[in-house]
Every structure is written in C-alpha cells, then in structure tokens.
Amino acid sequence: METGMISSPSSSSPSRPPVILTQDELKKIAAYKAVEYVESGMVLGLGTGSTAKHAVDRIGELLRQGKLKNIVGIPTIEDDPRTSVDPYLNLVKGRGGSLLREKMVEGACKKFVVIVDESKLVNYLGGSGLAMPVEIVPFCWKFTAQRLQMLFEESGCVAKLRTYQNGEPFVTDNMNYIVDLYFKREIGDLKVASDAILRLAGVVEHGMFIDMATTLIVAGECGVIVKDKWDSASHRR
C-alpha cells in the first residue's frame, strides 16, 4: 500500500516517530478540504471515485449536523483513476469513457474543484504514456482514427480503438466509440490541438479539460496542497 508521511514538529523532548498516513487517508484529508468549498443551496456534480466518496460522506455528515442545507447532488461522473493534471490546472479526464458528460457537467459549473493524489501530476499533457481519449461516432471510425493519428504525426501519435476484453468496441454512455491517442512527445499548444481535433468530422469530444478547473487539491507525502487557477502560488495545509 502506498503511504505518505507527515513529520512531527521538532522540540527539545525526544523526537516522536513520524505519523504514517496511507494513500486513502491522504485522499480523505484532500476530500475534506474540498468540501470546505461547498455552501448551502449548491447543486453539486459528484464523482464516484474513492476520493469523491470521502467528499460525499463528509457532505452527508454536515447535512445531518445541519451545517449544510438544500444540497442537490448530480451523480453523473464515473470513477476515473487515471486523471492527469499539468502545472496550469489543465487536465486529461474521461479515460473511464464518460468524457462528454463530464465536460458538459463541469462546463456548467461556477466552480470546478479537482481532487487528486500527487501521482496524477504531470509536467505536460501528452507524452506521459497515458491515453488521451477522443469520443467519435461509430460511422467510418477507422477513417476518423487515421486522421487523428495523422494530425499528431510529429508527436509520434498512435491511435487505438478502445475495446472490451472480447475485442468488441467500447461503447460510451452516448453510444459512441473511444479512440485513445498515445503520444511519444509533447503535442504543443493545447488549445490549438483541441481546435484541430474538434474540426475533424466524426469527432464528438476529447478528454482535454483546458482552463476549466478553478481549484486543484493535491494529497501528497507532505500533506495537502491547494492551488487556485488565478493564483499560481501553492500553499500547504
């Protein structure tokens, strides 16, 4: 099991052993920090991952205590343990297959708070070895996949149709297919890449969430880091 460490403060007394926190405990701390952004009367888009579960449990506790009221939850986003976040709070999400619905919900939000552990942090999107999903219509999918691959030829792109274990195409919530793009190198300006992908006929949406996250909460070895979109300085909790 992955663990994190928070060192105890130094003092003249004999030093105490460091407090060891499991990755799940760190996620819980980060989730509770995210709940501090929740106010009575809000409509919340709720995820179903392990970190989101801690947040939902905390919200339920506050509702029972009467500290929060009139909260409406929209459970539309599936568990996606493979989210990637770059230093500018841009993300790749939807590797679980619900990228279109995720983007529609999060695009309608006034605040988009992202909770991750530090293993999800990358220097740049693309070239990290993880797939960047693109949702496409099934009609002529091979042609669309070829065009996507050619679009990022200079980045060493390989486009693969996502399939189930039996070899059948993976089908999204909207009855579309997913083509996963794998890059060997950076893809350059993300907004330019986004526009180029969306201009291709047959493409429904891609998994890059550019300039959408308002706050990033990271659970790591040294505690929780909070980073706001409009404040490049991070601060520890």
From TrEMBL:
It catalyses: aldehydo-D-ribose 5-phosphate = D-ribulose 5-phosphate. Its EC number is 5.3.1.6. GO terms for biological process: pentose-phosphate shunt, non-oxidative branch. Pathway: Carbohydrate degradation; pentose phosphate pathway; D-ribose 5-phosphate from D-ribulose 5-phosphate (non-oxidative stage): step 1/1. It is an enzyme of class 5 (isomerase). GO terms for molecular function: ribose-5-phosphate isomerase activity. Keywords: Isomerase. Belongs to the ribose 5-phosphate isomerase family. This is ribose-5-phosphate isomerase. It comes from Vitis vinifera.
